[in-house]
Amino acid sequence: FAELAVALGGTGRRVVTRRELGEALAAAHGDETTWHLIEIMLPRGEYSATLRRFADAVKKRSVLGTG
Fold first, then answer.
1. What confidence tens digit (pLDDT) does each residue in 33-48 have?
2. Please, are residues 15 and 24 in contact by the beta-carbon 8 Å criterion?
3. DSSP secondary structure letters along 1-63
4. Would you tell me how many other CB atoms lie within 10 Å of the CB of residue 10?
């Protein structure tokens, strides 16, 4: 996804660590010339509480949530 941002006219960056995330957020915040997409790589099966709530909400609103 990060590479796709460039094709769409933005800046993309893939991050793995919290430090990389902090650096990417700082760079995005400091750059008013374009939009930024930050792709956060999580270990398979590992989700934050926020991501889980988001995924659950999307599922409820999609055809997957209709049973």
1. 999 999 999 888 888 8
2. yes
3. -HHHHHHTTSEEEEE-SHHHHHHHHHHHHH--SS-EEEEE---TT---HHHHHHHHHHHHHSG
4. 14
- The CA angle 24-26-30, to the nearest 5 degrees, is 115
8-state DSSP, 66: G
CA distances from 23 to 3, 7, 58 (A): 18, 22, 29
Instruction: Determine the Cα–Cα distance for residues 28 and 8; give it in Å rounded to an integer.
Output: 16
**Nearest alpha carbon to residue 41 among 10, 11, 1:** 1
Question: What is the pTM for the complete model shown?
Answer: 0.68
Structure token pair of residue 13: 């960056």
CB atoms within 10 A of CB 11: 17
